[in-house]
Amino acid sequence: MNENFVIDLTPCLTTPEMINGISNAFNTSDAKGKQIVLKLKDFQLSQSQMLSIKSLIISYGSTLYGIETTSLITKQLCENMSIQVITPDEVDKISKSIEEENKVVEEEALTPVETAPIIDKSLDVIYGKQEENSEAAGEFQLFQGNDFKEIIEDVKPAEKTVSEVQEEIKEEAVSPVEQTASPEEEKENAEELEEKTEEEKEEEIIEIPDEDDMPTYTKGYDENENDETIEEISYKPPTNEPVKLDNMQTLYVHQTLRSGQTVEFDGHVVIIGDCHPGSEIKATGDITIWGVLGSIAHAGIRGDRSAKIRALKMNAVQLRIADCYSRRPDGTNIPYIIKSSTFTPEEARIVDNGIVLYKTYQKED
Amino acid sequence: MAGTTIVITSGKGGVGKTTTSANIGTALARSGMKVVLIDTDIGLRNLDLLLGLENRIVYTIVDVVEERCKLKQALVKDKKNPNLCLLAAAQTRDKSALNADQLKDICDKLKEDFDYVLIDCPAGIEQGFQNAIAGADRAIIVTTPEMSAIRDADRIIGLLEAKEGIDDYKLLINRVRPNMIKTNDMMSVDDVVEILSCELIGIIPEDTGIITSTNKGEPIVNDEKSLAGKAYLNVAKRIQGENVEFLDLDEPKTLIDKIKKFFANLKAKA
Prior knowledge:
The complex is a heterodimer of chains A (about 375) and B (about 270).
Chain A: E1 4-8, H1 15-28, E2 35-41, H2 47-59, E3 63-69, H3 72-80, E4 84-85, H4 88-97, H5 100-110, H6 116-127, H7 131-136, H8 145-155, H9 169-174, H10 190-193, H11 198-207, E5 221-226, E6 250-253, E7 262-265, E8 268-272, E9 280-283, E10 287-293, E11 296-299, E12 309-314, E13 318-321, E14 324-327, E15 346-351, E16 354-360
Parallel strand pairs in A: 1-2, 2-3, 3-4, 6-8, 7-9, 8-10, 9-11, 10-12, 11-13
Antiparallel strand pairs in A: 5-16, 12-15, 13-14, 15-16
Helix pairs in contact in A: 1-2, 1-5, 6-11
Chain B: E1 4-9, H1 17-30, E2 35-39, H2 47-51, H3 61-65, H4 71-74, E3 75-77, E4 84-87, H5 100-113, E5 116-120, H6 127-134, E6 138-143, H7 147-162, E7 168-176, H8 178-182, H9 189-196, E8 200-205, H10 209-216, H11 227-239, H12 255-269
Parallel strand pairs in B: 1-5, 1-6, 2-4, 2-5, 6-7, 7-8
Antiparallel strand pairs in B: 3-4
């Protein structure tokens, strides 16, 4: 019989924190393969969040045994998804029945002992040695997205030669050659964050080559080639954008989105598959579609104007970024998706209050 | 201004409710009336495609009901005709997102500003249908000359009669094929009217142009040559109370047909 394992998520206030908490518990203790009991208190979960959490737990080889919650909405959702709702008393019983060792392990899971050095290192990579910051927070809260950001902002003025930290590998590849490479360059691939353990992430940061090593990718997007179908605006290349570390979560969807299906996520969304007309994708961060985008995509729904939408083939009915909105020209108002074997990847971003599409640079031989 | 609310319904799916809604709406707007089309087929919206307005929809009827936007913000103006507006359905929700009272409220508000409020009803007799007929003053029942569609239309007429408030319902027969009626392969218009014992408001011939017009997002009434377009224009006139004769669907199209008919008429006279 599988043993029970209690993960206490009561200090968590946001979904990213919860996901962090769960993955920490799995990475630092022997929770794998056990029946997991989540303590949620009054946190309200949406169905998609619940599904993400459930699949996260399953991906670690465990099963979701039950959830302890005081939120009525979450309770009802649990009933709908046939997940057991556990009363606090039962949780106490379970906790007591678990051996003393397990308790110790559980406490370890929620302390940042294992993972704190990683953040130190990643910060060191960017800013040089900054020791006092990482010691400031001694608790699990260290991993809350907000705190992390504050730490970075504190550090920023002290460092003068900080070069751009790109949000994603793809963007990294297209940055201009002239930019002086900095040894403190850090690259963070947001898309792959979810799949990688903390250890792997650390390795990735260290092993990343300097910009000098990768000159062949340096012209991903042709700055002069605007797509005229949406709007024609001259593009000014960004100069030394402020450092922005991306610590948003990423939702990874491996399926075709059909009419009527929606994906809404607090973070980035990656879809491997096509998005058919009538579906909708909403994200607080970027939206990346490895396939045809034929529907409505809304990036940066909380007002992040730097959010981007990219797809292998842009056939979108509407593109919305933050508070900007652009629609497909009427002439091409075709109610069905056009599939073809040739793809021209495009990226939509906001330039001068308008959404502009950038096509990839086609190299001529 | 107190407008009229007309629900376009059928019971059976695929008989042409949405096509009829789009075309009657466009025809009424062309004659100078202020028209708003409401798509109540939440989850399976199509009316926006037929009007070619898919890329303009930002807010839907569900957003209005859930107070994420004002009613006027959700109205999408037609590309060509400023008299025509569309209140689109949400694609990512289902019929339970709306209830009859909410739709009735919306209809009552729209009636103040528009001459005609046309409601495109979803197929079936479940909640979607109940919602759609809630705010209606009049009804147009669309049917085709097939037993299954007629049976469903009969059921719908029964339900409409049972509901208070709808005093006027009329029949529109869609996809009529004069050639098949001639060879007795299809029920004639008179047969259908007799079976349903309901007043007729229009006869629309089968027209391959409907398919292209749907794909283009351009209602067929804008096509001057189309017979179906003419038929829809006549329906719009009848809705406004004009007395228009029904189209002669046997009207010859090609020159040879015209010559044949000319001689046939000569023979008949002799």
